[in-house]
Amino acid sequence: MNSTVMQGNSGSPDVIVLGGGIIGLSSAWSLARAGLRVVVVDPAGAVARPRPGATWAAAGMLAPVSEASLAHEPLTRLGTAAVQRFPDLVESIRQAGGPDPQWRRTGSVAVAYDSADRDELRRRHDVQHRWGLDARMLEADECRDLEPALDPGVAGGVLIPDDHQVNPRRLVAGLLHMLTRVAGVEVIARAGRPQLVGGRVEGVRLDDGQMRSAPVVVLATGAWSSDVCPVRPVKGQILRLRMSARDALLRHPVRGIVAGREVYLVPRADGELVVGATTEDVGLDESVTAAGVYELLRDAITLVPGIQDLELTETLARCRPASPDGLPLIGRCHVPGLVLATGHGRHGVLLSALTGDAVRDAVLGRPQDDAVTACDPGRFTDPVTLEGRAA
Ligand SMILES: Cc1cc2nc3c(=O)[nH]c(=O)nc-3n(C[C@H](O)[C@H](O)[C@H](O)COP(=O)(O)OP(=O)(O)OC[C@H]3O[C@@H](n4cnc5c(N)ncnc54)[C@H](O)[C@@H]3O)c2cc1C
């Protein structure tokens, strides 16, 4: 074990994790599993629902192949490595008697509405092929064979067999279950800030003024880390609808391009249908707008007309923590004792289990997996400014 971790006073934790979204909770679980004494600090405490943060909004697509052509190769490699961490995590939750996180290999179908959209899908398919990923072009009638509810106008598609999905809310509940009931981790229902003494982190100052000491602090506050890290909030609006559980409208997640615009529809086994998501550079704003809901429903109904009869059960907006180069910041930084785990953008659920293990390795001073080295915060000149960043 790294000597920094051994310095905690008896009774104080080895690590405090700031932030209880999917990244903070996954990190806390990997650290606790490695035998470290961990405390999590988040205003939501250990209450499983509802929670602040992007995780509560996320659709739960684990889709590195579908997203490949929208990303760069290091991010795709990170995503394909990340998917492989899920079986172990899901099995741990099962063994601990936690809720089923509904992790499934459903594959997904990407569809194009008009011929220009089909050209774009073909371009993406070429990238997927070049990177050795499994994706197969579909004719329009093959798309409708797979998904009979698609509009007859759909021009073609791509089948991606290796995409997975999970229910992020149930995954959070499963992690909280393991942390509090199996690992005995304390979850403090407060906000906090890393506290520096002589230039190194000595713990966390809670918003009631209390100080909690620890030799290592993990900063996993998602979009709220934008005041100290090179991360910016990117707003996403998302909808939930209810299908008939007996007669699901869709069998696979469907990702559509409609006149150049992106929309996705993720059906769950319990009848929930998630439709997302907008991408808006408007700062830390969680308001649901008429335009956001209209645009998502318009494009979803264009692809799957039967949606107009479904009950709309939830509208929500949350902010993704986006980094300048699309890769998260994971690892130690120039402030001794501070480990960063933020900037996961639109892939935080996908990258959660892998990030947890990478945080554990950073805390313990172990070498990182090859795919994770690209996420070293040291690639930015000033990965954290704890006094606050200039706006
Ligand atoms: C609409 C939408 C759809 C998405 N769909 C997907 C998807 O399908 N697949 C996928 O992989 N990703 C998806 N994402 C992205 C994913 O949700 C995020 O990347 C991920 O949730 C980030 O997790 P996080 O733990 O870093 O941040 P968050 O989930 O935002 O959690 C941050 C936590 O920090 C806490 N916090 C803030 N300030 C403090 C403080 N001072 N002290 C203590 N705690 C604090 C907050 O209370 C919060 O709980 C989606 C995002 C959005 C918005």
From TrEMBL:
Keyword Metal-binding: no
Catalyzed reactions: glycine + O2 + H2O = glyoxylate + H2O2 + NH4(+)
Keyword Oxidoreductase part of the UniProt annotation: yes
Molecular function GO labels: glycine oxidase activity
Keyword annotations of the record: Oxidoreductase, Thiamine biosynthesis
Pathway given in the UniProt record: Cofactor biosynthesis; thiamine diphosphate biosynthesis
Enzyme class: oxidoreductase
Domain FAD dependent oxidoreductase positions: 14-361
Stored InterPro entries: FAD-dep_OxRdtase, FAD/NAD-bd_sf, Gly_oxidase_ThiO
Gene3D superfamilies: D-Amino Acid Oxidase, subunit A, domain 2, FAD/NAD(P)-binding domain
Documented EC number(s): 1.4.3.19
PANTHER family linked to this entry: GLYCINE OXIDASE (PTHR13847:SF289), SARCOSINE DEHYDROGENASE-RELATED (PTHR13847)
UniProt-recorded name of the protein: glycine oxidase
Protein species of origin: Kineosporia corallincola
